[in-house]
């Protein structure tokens, strides 16, 4: 029994980059940064069991569109339940790597990511995949759109700032989460601002 719990925790950390689902405090801190007063095109990446998805669906207006990108189909039942429970909301689920989904420039007003960016560093490819992912996020965001990302230990801040060509707009610390997390907010500036 203990061995099974240990194996599950180890798998969660190495594959998904977390121990348990994000807390309500982290979810509210991050989703609270989105201005839902008008229709939005939103991309949520790495939904897992839908901690953020549930809150976004609740807050978005029926004219908004939410694309949920989760590479693992094993989480589909949680997301599909949220979709069937909210038939008035426009939600689509994509089981693929986010780099495959982000093919249209400037499509999204908001990108909210739970991607374990730190894990992408360990790929022995000189961070090529990590940088490809952040480039894809920037490409898919409209000018003025907002990219929200949580990370532990303030990791990958410099990678994001370098690819977006500007400092982070703000960073919030959320202590009540396992692990305590930093919420990054980055708005996309015009192309000429890039380093
Ligand atoms: C840290 S978990 C977050 C789960 C949930 N959003 C939360 O915060 O509780 C990261 C999720 O990202 C997914 N993921 C990892 N790499 C991905 C990729 N390249 N494209 C899309 N999803 C990915 C994992 O399968 C995992 O469900």
UniProtKB/TrEMBL annotation:
Listed Pfam families: Methyltransf_25
SUPFAM superfamilies assigned: S-adenosyl-L-methionine-dependent methyltransferases (SSF53335)
Residue intervals of the Methyltransferase domain: 42-138
The protein, known as: Methyltransferase domain-containing protein
């Amino acid at each position: 029994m203990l061995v099974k719990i240990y194996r599950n925790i180890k798998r969660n950390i190495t594959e998904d980059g977390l121990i348990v689902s994000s807390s309500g405090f982290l979810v509210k801190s991050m989703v609270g940064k989105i201005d839902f007063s008008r229709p939005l095109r939103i991309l949520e990446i790495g939904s897992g069991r839908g901690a953020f998805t549930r809150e976004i669906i609740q807050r978005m207006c029926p004219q908004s569109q939410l694309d949920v990108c989760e590479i693992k189909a094993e989480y589909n039942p949680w997301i599909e339940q949220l979709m069937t429970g909210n038939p008035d909301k426009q939600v689509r689920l994509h089981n693929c790597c986010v780099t495959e989904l982000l093919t249209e420039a400037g499509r999204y007003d908001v990108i909210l990511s739970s991607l374990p960016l730190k894990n992408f560093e360990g790929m022995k490819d000189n961070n090529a995949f990590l940088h490809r992912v952040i480039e894809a996020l920037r490409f898919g965001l409209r000018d003025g759109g907002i990219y929200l990302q949580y990370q532990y230990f303030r990791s990958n801040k410099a990678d994001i700032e370098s690819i977006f060509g500007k400092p982070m707009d703000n960073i919030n610390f959320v202590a009540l989460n396992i692990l305590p997390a930093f919420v990054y907010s980055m708005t996309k500036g015009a192309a000429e601002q890039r380093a």
